[in-house]
Amino acid sequence: MNKLEVPGKFDRAARGYDFLVGLNPGYHQALRRSALALGLRPGMRVLDLGCGTGASTAALVAAAPGVEIVAVDASAGMIARAREKRWPSTVRFVHSRAEDVDEGEFDAVFAAYLVRNLPEPDPTLTRIRELLKPGGTLVLHEYSVRDSAVSTAVWTLLCGFIVPAGWLVTGDRSLYTYLWRSVMDFDGATALRDRLRRNGFVGVRSAPLPGLQLGVVHTFRGHVPEQEQR
Q1: pTM of the full structure
Q2: Residue 180 needs a FRET pair 20 to 30 A away by CA distance; which of 129, 149, 165, 225 works?
C-alpha cells in the first residue's frame, strides 16, 4: 500500500475508526494537550488539517470554545462520518486535500497524524505557511520514533494489538500494517523539527506526550515569522 491510496483506505475504514481509537487509552486527552499548544484565543480562525472523523476537531473545540474552525480531510468517508456528529455553529467541514485548501488566512493550523501520511510533506508544509497569517502558529500532533530504540520497540509492541484489532473491525489488515510501517519510516523528532525550519517556520520545538505512548507521540510547534512577506 502506498501513500496515494491512504484516503481511499480511510473511506472504507471510517465507520469503525471511532471505535478503534476509543480502544487507545489517552488518545483524546493527548489530542487536547496538543490543541492547547496552539494558544488559541477568542476570535481566532483555525484550520484543522487531516481532521478525520473529527477527533482533532473536538480537541480544538474543547481547547477554545467559540473559535472558528475549518476542518479538512482528503477522505470523503471520514468527512461524512464527522459531519454526522453534533458540532457548534463555528465548525465547518471541507472535503479537500491539504495542499489544495483555499479557505483564506488562518491564525493557527492544527494537523494531527497528517504529515506522515503525505506523499510529499514539504509542499504541503509550504502551503500551510502560506495559509497562516504572519506570526501564526502551526502545531503537529504526530508519531515519531526513529530517534529512540526504546520508542521504536514500544511502537512495535503496541502494533501487536493495533493491527489485529483493526483487521477484526474493518476486515482490512493493510491499513494497519501500513500504519506500523509508516511510523517506522517517518522522520525522527529531530528530523521533523529540521523539516519545519527548512519550510520557513521559526521558534520550532517539540515535546513527547505523556501516557501509554510516551516517546511515540509528540507535539511539534512552530510559527510563521511576524514579518512574513506576502
Answers
A1: 0.93
A2: 129
